[in-house]
Amino acid sequence: MDANIIITAATAISVGVILAAAGLGSAIGWGLICSKALEGISRQPEMRPQLMFNMFIFAGLMESFPFIIMAFALWFLFANPFLG
Fold it and tell me: Helix, strand, coil proportions of the chain in percent (round to 5)?
């Protein structure tokens, strides 16, 4: 069997696992961020504007994570550095 075929197949499987892990990690992060913000608002309602602002800042950072991972995964998929 040709080594390039094995490398291409392993890269495709790895890209799928990477994208799935990035999506799952982002979803878990969103859930934790929102739950802690709601918990803080329920404890101190007067802090709602500050907590919401922080929640949206951190949610934006959490949202950028899968896109960065997707860029690396597509680089591995289309410009595979492991092929000779």
Answer: 90, 0, 10
Mean pLDDT of 20-25: 93
Angle 44-60-27 from CA coordinates, rounded to 5°: 85
Alpha carbon separation from 14 to 10, 18, 74, 77 (Å, rounded): 6, 6, 11, 9
Place of tokens 């949206």: 56
Asked if 77 contacts 8 with a C-beta cutoff of 8 angstroms, the reply is no
CA distance to 5, 19, 43, 49, 75, per residue, from 80 (Å) = 12, 16, 50, 46, 7
Average pLDDT over residues 40-54: 95
Kindly give, in sequence order, each residue whose CB lies less than 8 Å from that of residue 84, ignoring residues fewer than 6 positions away: 4
Global pTM exceeds 0.85:
no
